[in-house]
Amino acid sequence: MQLATILEGGEEIAVALDPPRGLVRLTDLAEPIGGGALDVIAAVPPGEFTDRVRATPTARFAPAEGREFTAPYRRPHKIWGIGLNYRAHADDLSAVHPDEPASFIKADHTVIGPGEPIPLPAQSERVTAEAELGLVIGRPTRDVAEADAIGALWGVVPVLDQTAEDILQRNPRFLTRSKNFPGFFSFGPGITPIGEVLERFGSLAAIEVATVVDGEVRRADTVAHMIFGPAHLIAFHSAMMPLHPGDIISSGTPGAAVIAAGDTAECRIPGIGVLTNPVVSGRS
C-alpha cells in the first residue's frame, strides 16, 4: 500500500495504491482525506492511512495501469542528502569512512517525479545518478533519541539523487552547487507507510537498493551495510534542527553511475518500488 500522486486533466491528485485492487482517490476513501500528499503526511499518521485504505470497498478502486504518476509532492520543507554512507561505496572511492554523517541540503527546485527527464546541465561534463532509499518524516521531530527515531517516519520512497561529479571533484566546497541543478532529485512513484515496511521486511536493514542504468544493475547493497543507519540519520539531523512532516532524508547510495543523454536511470528497491527517469541534454 502506498501514498502517491497522479496527473489527471492537468491536475495533481493524491491517491492510495493497494495492489491488486488498484488505486483510489483519497477523497473517495470510506473515510475521506482531503488535500495533497504532503497535507496527508502532516495530518494523518501512517497507520491510520493504512486502516482507512483497507476499510474502503474494492468497488471504489480503479486500475493503476496507464496512469501518469508524478512526484508525490513538489515542495518538501527540506531535503537532506547523505554522502558516502555505504561502506562498499566509500571503499570504491578510496574514501575514509566518515565519523559523522556527511550531509548536504537540496532545494525543492531540484524535485521531479517518475518519467520526468533529468536534464544534464551545461556546466557539467560528468553527471551521475545515485539510487537511494528516501526517509519521509511524518511528524514534527526535534532531538529524538535514536531508539525512538523510526517512530518519526511516515514512510519510505525510492529516490534518484544526481551529482555534477566533475564540479565536485574540482573542489569539495562545490558540493551544494554540484547537487542543486534542476531535476537532480527525483522521488516516487509511491511512499510506503512505515508500518507496511516493517511488516514486510522486519526492519529497514533488510531493504536492498540498486542503481540501474538502461536495465543494467550498476550497484546494489542492503541498508544493513550503511555506515549510519536510518535511525541514526534521523536522530543526528533532529539534533541539528527541527524536522518537519514531509522532510526527506535521502540516505545515501550503494553506488553512483555516470549518465548520458538517451540513458534511462532507475532506482530499484524490491518490495518498495521502481523509479525511472529518462536522461536528456540540458546543454544549450
TrEMBL record:
Annotated ranges, domain Fumarylacetoacetase-like C-terminal: 78-280
Biological process terms in GO annotation: small molecule metabolic process
A Pfam match: FAA_hydrolase
InterPro entries given in the database record: FAH, Fumarylacetoacetase-like_C, Fumarylacetoacetase_C_sf
Gene3D superfamilies: Fumarylacetoacetase-like, C-terminal domain
Alphabetic keyword roster: Metal-binding
MF terms in GO: catalytic activity; metal ion binding
Family listed: Belongs to the FAH family.
Name of the molecule in the record: 2-keto-4-pentenoate hydratase/2-oxohepta-3-ene-1,7-dioic acid hydratase (Catechol pathway)
Organism of provenance: Actinacidiphila guanduensis
The organism's taxonomic lineage, starting at the top: Bacteria, Bacillati, Actinomycetota, Actinomycetes, Kitasatosporales
